[in-house]
Design a protein that fits this description.
By secondary structure, this protein is mostly helical. The chain has eleven helices and no strands.
């Protein structure tokens, strides 16, 4: 239900939320560009150190002999992984479109969209610091799409909603804190800043992939999995499979393969709930499949 504009406080106003997100993302985009340029300068002056660091990292996972078809599969996953990430970010679009059409969010949580912004930004910073274009480019797309989804959701959830979980203001403050913390950390020059950001990314990946399960209580109580968006879940399955394979066999990066293995498990669990309970509606419209 949409509340009268006069009752909406500045922090929860849909228009204020949109303006705040747009301005913040533009400013952060400029800062990210500066940090990226600084990283390139540092990398140009420390090629030997980077090579030694890469050598140390790759020895954490034993080299494995791959057959021809296995090698081809790994290469295929490495090719589709960035596109899989963008597919995953695009998956909630039908859900957001239906929310706009029905002018209600039903029992859907805001968490997937606020965590998409925070998670995407963390991985943008990690990709820049590790000089991995396949990581930061698709996640930049995710940050902007997440901001759009967030703003659209807020427009129809009502300013006093507290089942998102939490409130709109709480999500805005939490997401903003994550963005500012990671910008500060990346610009600090701390030697292990990239690993700290990577471990933080692991945490946010888990939150993002498992967030539809925040409606588990409603799913069980209503015997309906309508609150679990199926497009997002299927895209997550494809995305996590590709990144897990690429992270383990090609990049050999714990921060890449570990959260995606967990995300793969979450996606399987969500699809199982969807298969068991379906999209039956109780006392209201069916909401996004």
């Amino acid at each position: 239900m949409r509340s009268p504009p006069a009752t909406i406080s500045p922090i929860t106003s849909p228009h204020a939320s949109i303006q705040t997100l747009v301005v913040t993302l533009l400013l952060l985009g400029s800062l990210v560009s500066i940090i990226s340029a600084q990283r390139e300068d540092v990398e140009d002056n420390s090629t030997t150190s980077i090579l030694l660091s890469d050598k140390t990292t790759t020895t954490t996972i034993p080299q494995q002999s791959l057959s021809l078809w296995q090698s081809a599969f790994v290469d295929l996953c490495a090719t589709i992984a960035p596109y899989g990430a963008i597919l995953c970010f695009l998956a909630p679009y039908p859900t957001i479109t239906q929310i706009s059409r029905d002018k209600t969010v039903g029992n859907l949580p805001l968490l997937p969209y606020s965590s998409m912004v925070a998670n995407g930004f963390v991985w943008v910073m990690y990709g820049i610091m590790k000089n991995e274009r396949s990581v930061w480019i698709p996640n930049t797309v995710g940050v902007f799409l997440g901001a759009y989804y967030f703003a659209t959701f807020v427009r129809y959830c009502g300013p006093m909603a507290t089942n998102l979980p939490g409130t709109v203001g709480g999500h805005l403050k939490g997401t903003g804190a994550v963005l500012l913390f990671n910008l500060s950390l990346a610009a600090s020059g701390i030697s292990n800043a990239d690993d700290v950001i990577g471990k933080e990314g692991v945490f946010f990946c888990i939150v993002l992939f498992a967030s539809p399960l925040s409606a588990l209580k409603t799913v069980i109580a209503n015997r309906s999995a309508a609150s679990i968006p199926l497009p997002f879940t299927v895209a997550t399955f494809i995305n996590c499979l590709a990144w897990a394979v690429m992270g383990w066999w090609k990049m050999r990066d714990f921060n890449i393969y570990f959260p995606n293995l967990l995300g793969l498990s979450c996606a399987v669990a969500q699809m199982a709930l969807k298969g068991v309970y379906g999209n039956r509606s109780f006392g209201g419209k069916e909401l996004p499949k």
